[in-house]
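Progress report, Aim 2. The chain analyzed during this reporting quarter is listed below.
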Amino acid sequence: MSERPTRTETDSLGSMEIPSHAYWGIHTARAFENFDISKRPISVYPHLIVALASVKQAAARANTELGALNAEKADLIDRACQRVIDGEFHEEFCVGVIQGGAGTSTNMNANEVITNVALEMAGRQKGDYAFISPYDHTNRSQSTNDVYPTAIKIALARSLTDLLDELELLRQSFALKGQEFRHVLKVGRTQLQDAVPMTLGQEFHGFATTLGEDHKRLAETIWLLAEINLGATAIGTGITADPRYASVVVRHLNDITGLKLETAPDLVESTSDAGAFMSFSSALKRSAIKLSKICNDLRLLSSGPQAGFGEINLPAKQAGSSIMPGKVNPVIPEVMNQIAFSVVGADTTVTMAAEGGQLQLNAFEPVIAHSLLQSILWMARGCETLRVNAVDGITANEDRLETMVGTSVGVVTALTPFIGYTAAAALAKTALLTNRNIADLVVEADLMTREEVTKQLSPARLSGLEAITTAIPIIDNGSVATAVGGEATDS
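Predicted structure tokens for the chain:
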């Protein structure tokens, strides 16, 4: 069996044999040897690949406009970039997501792939770098240190749009359930103890409101990603680039991406600082924690079905046990919880990576990029599965909820404006001892008529949707005490 054909490529460290079919080159090959760690190529984040190609395309156009790059070569690079933007060759972006070198391997992977696509379009052999060079042409006026963070910010902005779309769909799903359950009374809880009544609709509407607020907070973080350091080159001084390059390239990049990017006012500061990534990560963590809390509530509300809360039913998605027949677990909220745990951990990683930079560069942007892009991707997919596989199919156990409300001592709170706190407390004690319906006890004690009790304990009034207007005369404590079996005393 013959070996696959190769081509020889050379860098400052020596020569290597590269598979002839590969669009990547020697720098990518060295990354394979050095960073065989994550087993996950950067192509798992398509937005990052498109962002890298967009930066290279903007650079080619800016260099042509400024006379820094031959028009024929620039056009080939431009068209090669467009093919990558359109979805081709993504599998050739194959360096690992975790790498040393501040992203140099990723930048060189992009340079090599785009260059070899351009060479092929020109009818040349891959590796014919005398005609188009990954360094002198595709990377003209650039450095990893400005290309890479700029591409990360573009990729995050694009990924954030995907997350915001899913978050809004999930918000709508909870809002629809809020409307569906608007008439269903239940017992509210504080500190896991029975509190006053509310409707299940109000609970789900609250979930929707929370997600709506997080949508707004996340959307606001887009400004964190708008300031870029493209044109800074190595450390922010712009060495090897035309003085006009920074302003020209950002104009082209905005045309390509449709974003509103701005050149940082201090390129030295911008090149070394990762604070924007840390702030962005914090916003993601907030949203993840809020989602996880909602999922905790869903798991509690659906617990049972016999020995738990049993207030709602989550769609059954898979067998819950290999030993207990019939058991069904809340697997969809559980996976969202785990995504949140991962996002919290990723936020810590981003924080430490931002702190770990030294002097004019932060070398740890690869793990920042991976942490943030994975968090956004997982959150978006988590929101989708939570919506489709759980929330849309939730049903209410109305009979159980009605029974719980009827026997809940919290209901008596609604009657305190009419019968007084002392009488209400006595009734609550009796209800707890006898497990009887509060309304029945009030009527039997001749404190209110059945009509009056029914009116005040209506879903609209118990849930606060309809304001209580006029109270009936409060019955004196002595009569109440006697009525419920207590001993009357004068106040």
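The mean pLDDT is 90. The first strand starts at residue 6 and ends at 11. These observations will guide the mutagenesis work planned for the next reporting period.
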